[in-house]
Amino acid sequence: MSIKRFDLIAFDVDGTLVDDTVFVWETLHDHHRTDRASRDMAFEKYMAGEWSYRQWFEHDIRLLTEAGANHSTIQEAISGMRLMEGALDTLAAIRNSGARLAIISGSLDIVVEKFGLADYFDDIYLNHIGFDSQGRLSEWEPTPYDVCDKATGLKDLARRYGIPMERTAFIGDNFNDVAVARVAGFSIAFNCKSDELAKTADVTVPGGDLRHVLPYLV
Ligand SMILES: [Mg+2]
Questions:
Q1: pLDDT in tens, 65-83
Q2: What domain range is 142 assigned to?
Q3: If I label 83, which of 16, 24, 58, 90 is the partner at 20 to 30 A Cα–Cα?
Q4: Ligand 1 midpoint to CA 70 (Å)
Q5: 12 C-alpha vs ligand 1 centroid, how far in Å?
Q6: What is the pLDDT of residue 4?
Q7: For the chain, first and last CA: distance in Å?
Q8: What is the mean pLDDT of residues 15-39?
Q9: Which H/E stretch holds residue 82?
Q10: Quick one: 45 and 119 in the same domain?
Q11: Residue 3 belongs to a domain
Q12: 134 C-alpha vs ligand 1 centroid, how far in Å?
């Protein structure tokens, strides 16, 4: 039994638990060849505070739907993604330590389902998409906790379980993890693609094998 250093440990998904994608959204848009200028416009409007996350999310869903995205093309798009080396060992070791495990991610639930990750986690916050019996994209719901709101997600979880923030840790890889890295008691930039995250996080761990974060967590 490993020793618990934190009571709540939260993970990002794309680029952290799952490899060969920076963001699943990029993977989907690239695969379906949606309009780059329109994608960039939506991202910039969100980042400038002109659009809500939901507006950005629904804009991207519309672009994908118009490009013919359905269950089979989306599964095809994510078929090249693989689990980060050492991910399951890492999650099992953390569970074994008795810490609560959470996902706070702007990825999609289909990615977590693809790899059977849900069983490892007590709480999962992700974007949702669903399909009808013909495989058409028929339902979607954005996560309340991406980018700056990832920090809100971690704070809400900690409050719910009565865990002080200094007993929380977060592991992520990119710019959308900066806000949550700031509020977590301890933060790890893993497989890091953002200078700002590298500067914000307590430690930086190179990508390749997620087990390398374990010495900091248990
Ligand atoms: Mg990520």
A1: 999 999 999 999 999 999 9
A2: 8-21+82-217
A3: 58
A4: 24
A5: 5
A6: 80
A7: 10
A8: 95
A9: strand 82-83
A10: no
A11: no
A12: 31
Q: What is the pTM of this model?
A: 0.95
Q: Is 195 found in the same domain as 95? A: yes
The CATH number that applies at residue 190 is 3.40.50.1000
Residues 88 and 179 in one domain: yes
Expressed in angstroms and rounded, the spacing between residue 21 Cα and the centre of ligand 1 is 9
Token look-up 């430690």 returns: 203
Do residue 140 and residue 194 come from a single domain? yes
Instruction: Please tell me the distance between residue 87's alpha carbon and the centre of ligand 1 in angstroms.
Output: 14
SS3 164: coil
How many whole angstroms from its chain centre is CA 37?
A: 24
**Residue 55: is it exposed, middle or buried by C-beta count within 10 angstroms (0-12/13-18/19+)?**
middle
Residue type at 78 in one-letter notation: I
Distance 133 CA to ligand 1 centre (A): 31
**57 CA to middle of ligand 1, Å?**
16
Distance 171 CA to ligand 1 centre (A): 9
pLDDT score recorded for residue 140: 97
Same domain, 64 and 108: no
The tally of CA atoms less than 13 A away on the side-chain side of residue 156 is 13
1 in a structural domain: no
Nearest to 186 by CA among 207, 164, 208: 164
Q: In total, how many domains does the chain have?
A: 2
Q: How many residues does the chain have?
A: 218
